[in-house]
Amino acid sequence: MKELRTALTEQLKRPDGPTPELTALLEEVGREAHENDVPPEELIVIFKELWNSLAESLRPQNADQYERVRQRLVTLCIQAYYAE
After folding, report:
1. What would the 3-class secondary structure string for the chain be?
2. pLDDT above 90: residue 65
3. Is 36 in contact with 10 (CB distance < 8 Å)?
4. From CA 19, how far away is CA 39, in angstroms rounded?
5. Residues with Cβ < 8 Å from 62, sequence gap 6 or more?
6. Greatest mean pLDDT range, 8-12, 37-41, 47-51, 67-71
7. Contact 25/7 with Cβ under 8 angstroms?
8. Do residues 50 and 7 make contact, with C-beta atoms less than 8 angstroms apart?
């Protein structure tokens, strides 16, 4: 979680799209959640709570842009969770 928090903090500083580091980390988190029988909805709730707490502390200027990035990151989590 510490790695994810750090990667998300960096992502919030550059909201233009998912960083390669965060993409790789989300793939790992998704796989691990699946392997440990963490329900996908629980994974998404945890991710969103973490994202929202970080975004709130950084007070983003363009909330719509951050929401689009968050949605893309959630999609990456889901794809990683169900990847073969």
Report:
1. CHHHHHHHHHHHHCCCCCCHHHHHHHHHHHHHHHHCCCCHHHHHHHHHHHHHHHHHHHCCCCHHHHHHHHHHHHHHHHHHHHCC
2. no
3. no
4. 25
5. 15
6. 37-41
7. yes
8. no
83, 30 contact by CB (below 8 A)? yes
Tell me the per-residue pLDDT of 21-42, one tens digit each, with 9 for 90 and over. 888 998 999 999 999 999 999 9
pTM above 0.85, yes or no: no
- Residue in the block written with tokens 């980390």: 25
Question: What are the tokens at 64?
Answer: 């719509």
Per-residue tokens: 11: 């992502």
Place of tokens 């994810």: 4
